[in-house]
Amino acid sequence: MRFEIRPYDEADESAVVALWSEVFAYTAPHNQPLNLVRQKRAYEQALFFVALDDRRLVGTVMGGYDGHRGWIYSLAVDPSARGQGIGAELMRRIERQLAELGCRKINLQVLAANSATVDFYRKLGYAVEERVSMGKLLVPPPPEPRDASRP
Questions:
Q1: Domain chopping of the chain, boundaries
Q2: CATH number of 4-123
Q3: What is the pTM of this model?
Q4: pLDDT tens digit string along 115-150?
Q5: CA 50/CA 67 separation, integer angstroms
Q6: Structural contact between residues 6 and 46, judged by C-beta atoms closer than 8 angstroms
Q7: CB 22 within 8 A of CB 79
């Protein structure tokens, strides 16, 4: 393994936002990468890891645990670094961390059209469960945070 996995650090913010913007292409205001990173860190510091290849951020995984279920919220690997085991190692890292917290089951959601991602998770032991995923926004999306690196 030539890459390093470590907990997220505030200095990683711009690289994580750039990676997520490229990989996820979110359009909903409540899913904007900068908002997601800052909301996660404001609520919980743990369960957020980055993968580095020679100090270049090439992957991330962000999860959560509520005492009942663990969740994988976001796993992203730079397209140019895929196929090297980075995503699988990030998942193993967060799974170990969740297990240490007493988590007995991990949930995650994948867009139905993303069959390659479903196959990736199946290889890691995850199974498609007969569920209907539903969601509801409780508040309007937060205003876009100002990126301090831009004028």
A1: 4-123
A2: 3.40.630.30
A3: 0.86
A4: 889 999 999 999 999 888 888 888 776 666 666 666
A5: 23
A6: no
A7: yes
